[in-house]
Design brief:
Radius of gyration: 36 Å
Structural class: alpha+beta
Shape: elongated
Helix content: 25-40%
Number of helices: 9
Strand content: 25-35%
Largest sheet: 5 strands, mixed
Order of helices and strands: EEEHHHHHEHHEEEEEEEEEEEHHE
Length: about 425
């Protein structure tokens, strides 16, 4: 007896043929079923977040569907491959295709996320299914590949005891392997438990930390916490500034893999060198800090010429020559105007900061600046700036970097000449 669904002369979905002890089920449009299950997976993830259902639909989406659609596109004929070969290639190509997609996504602005992975995988299957249907359509109907499942009771009865035992053992092994795989997905082993606790500069990078500030000048830092404890955790954040006592700043509740960041602004009012600023992170109701971060800042007295320029139109600096580095056996001071009780007419003005000689200043690197142009603004050589900042390459400065600018009349050691 044969049963099939037809539209004219073309079969739509499946056919069932029963010839005595032999049952054959043929799926004509298994590729449409794969695409349908993929879209059901997407709806399940975003509308019905049931973990078990996501695992059941997600495992074949990752391990089988991409490779099967690609094999269907490459080998549209039923005699191109044996069933076991088609199955093996489908599994192998799926494992190969998805990492390549991840590699491509990693170098795009979108990055590797759940959404981009679902979109790229589904798009790949839509394209390969389209190619497979096009190539199958060019073949005679009797030569097209169709997924076929056969149950041969007569052959089972005719086989020997050893063959039947091996078949049963193989089937049980496959079921056990699949069961183990789904169990591992459902109950993953808990890895290392820890918490990320970090400080960033005001630009959100691990740079630009303040080292010299004026008393009362705002200091801005970003404090971040990432929970890697594999559990929901309540944190308590406290801050201690220059030994003034602990101050609780935040209560944080984070789920596993959840991140928290906050911009903190505070001031130091007492002048002094290397004042300690501490951020302490407590876990739950613990009395001892779980993590701690420390920053040392030198605070200058009010009125000290510490320039923290803000981006804006630059005034034309007074041109000051910056000769190439020359060896000298003795210290040579940089020439500048002699300070008097009357403001010197040769004082250099740049941006919004007015700089007077006789004291070091802090300069924040702005777009387009070089050590030579910065030195010209303050009447010092770029070699002097390199010396006080410990720089080895005059070309390696970054936007937003804080540079100590020596006073124009400050005497700095220079290189000792070597024998020719």
């Amino acid at each position: 007896m044969g049963q099939s669904c037809r539209n004219g002369d073309e079969e739509l979905s499946y056919s069932v043929v029963n010839r005595g002890d032999r049952l054959t089920i043929t799926f004509q449009h298994e590729l449409l079923a794969i695409l349908g299950l993929s879209f059901v997976l997407i709806l399940t993830i975003y509308l019905v977040p049931i973990p078990a259902l996501r695992i059941i639909l997600g495992a074949p989406f990752v391990l089988f569907f991409p490779g099967y659609t690609l094999v269907a596109a490459l080998f549209p004929g039923k005699d191109d491959l044996e069933g076991i070969e088609r199955l093996g290639l489908s599994l192998g190509l799926s494992i190969a295709v998805l990492p390549l997609m991840g590699l491509v996504l990693n170098y795009t602005p979108l990055g590797i996320t759940l959404l981009t992975t679902l979109f790229s995988g589904t798009s790949f299957m839509v394209v390969t299914c389209g190619i497979a249907y096009y190539r199958r359509g060019r073949l005679p109907p009797e030569e097209r590949y169709a997924l076929r499942v056969e149950l041969d009771a007569a052959g089972w009865k005719a086989s020997g005891l050893i063959d039947r035992s091996l078949t049963v053992a193989l089937a049980l092994s496959i079921v056990a392997a699949l069961g183990t795989f789904f169990f591992v997905l459902a109950k993953p082993e808990v890895g290392e438990r820890f918490t990320e606790f970090y400080l960033l500069g005001p630009w959100g990078k691990a740079e630009g930390y303040p080292t010299y500030v004026l008393a009362g000048q705002p200091i801005r830092l970003i404090v971040g916490v990432v929970n890697r404890e594999h559990d929901d955790v309540r944190y308590r954040l406290e801050k201690e500034v220059a030994g003034q006592g602990l101050e609780q700043t935040a209560e944080i509740q984070l789920a596993h893999d959840e991140k928290w960041e906050e911009l903190y602004t505070f001031t130091l009012v007492e002048p002094g060198e290397d004042q300690k600023v501490s951020f302490l992170l407590y876990k739950g109701d613990d009395q001892e800090p779980y993590r701690s971060l420390h920053l040392w800042v030198s605070v200058l007295a009010p009125g000290a010429p510490v320039a923290t320029e803000t981006p804006g139109p630059m005034l034309t600096p007074t041109p000051v020559a910056s000769p190439p580095a020359e060896a000298s056996p003795t210290p040579i001071p940089v020439e500048t105007a002699t300070p008097t009780s009357t403001p010197s007419p040769t004082a250099i003005t740049t941006g919004t900061a007015t700089v007077t000689p006789q004291a070091r200043v802090i300069h924040i690197v702005q777009p387009g600046e070089t050590l030579t142009s910065i030195g010209a603004q303050y009447g010092v050589s770029y070699q002097a700036i390199m010396y006080v900042n410990g720089l080895e390459d005059p070309n390696l400065i970054e936007l937003g970097q804080e540079l100590i600018i020596p006073a124009p009349d400050e005497i700095l050691p220079t290189a000792t000449p070597t024998a020719p």
